[in-house]
Fold:
Amino acid sequence: MTKTNFQRLIDLKLLLSVEGIGPVKIRSLLTKLHSLEAVLSADFHTLIKIEGINSTLAKKIIRVKDNRNSMEEQLHKEIEKLVKLGGRIITIWDKEFPTLLKKIYDPPLLLYVKGSFNENDNYSISIVGTRQPSNYGKIQAERFASESAGQNITIVSGLARGIDTTAHSAAIKASGRTFAILGCGLDVIYPPENRKIFNEIANSGMVISEYELGTKPDAPNFPRRNRIISGISLGTIVIETAATGGAMQTASFALDQNREVFAIPGNLGIKQSEGTNLLIQKGEAKLVREPDDIIYELEYKLKPVLGIKTEKPMPELTIFEEKITACLSSEPTHIDKISQLTSLSISDCLVHLLTLEFKGVIKQLPGKMFALM
Structure:
């Protein structure tokens, strides 16, 4: 780590140590003051003019500079421990920081990591589910993770018992890459029986935590962990979960982050299927039966890493549907533009677009935008 990066990391940790200051407020401060050093050097009147910073927070920011020496000493010790673990710290300003994760509303500003990141890891899919899966759930988790990893797609999960562990293991067996996102410190292996796979993941991908070394796997940590699981991925597959399971929370984060959500249907009356069936019923997740269903849905985004070319047979189209598809591409197009290009009314366009969506030819995006699958 260069001296400049080390000093910037001290600045960041000083700000994060201020009660009431988190990633969102730090980004607000940086929008106005442009650097961490400038934030810590700012006077009271400058700070209180910034959105979200009241007089109490401004005073705390000014006072925290007095802790610089102790923070520097603490950081030196932390880095020494990380080196022994084979880990390191990366920040949102580093090139290695996952690109997709930078784009969510509240990305972590720093990560503790063990393992390596490569360009193909930008094409990842998360697989999540219950800690108590049925045999059916285990089979599906293994199948989806194994076949996806075999197509150079990085598998992301949370290293928990059940579906998570099955997904990680299947990716490794397929000689693929996998990321484990932790709800504890990088030096705290949870659950403890996953020590072996923890090290295997670090050798075939990356173990990632937002939390400082020594942080225990307390319940409040996991919602923040879940937003990283969905945020680092192009889409999330929910295998099995109760209606109130943590995987439902990950799916909710994915929807908020404008990422795809997929769910595998399960038997009625089975607790592990309640969540997945509910996601499908509410239209919040796309029902998938085969790993290729994921490939078809994300084909455009996954093209750089796909090991094979996948083509979905084109269904028979009416003359109006052909007219609409001719003016569409993989880039989103607004309904007004489609109407203009096809000389069809907006209402007629919407009817044909709905049919095309049912046929799997196009997909609807937020803001009345449409694109070819």
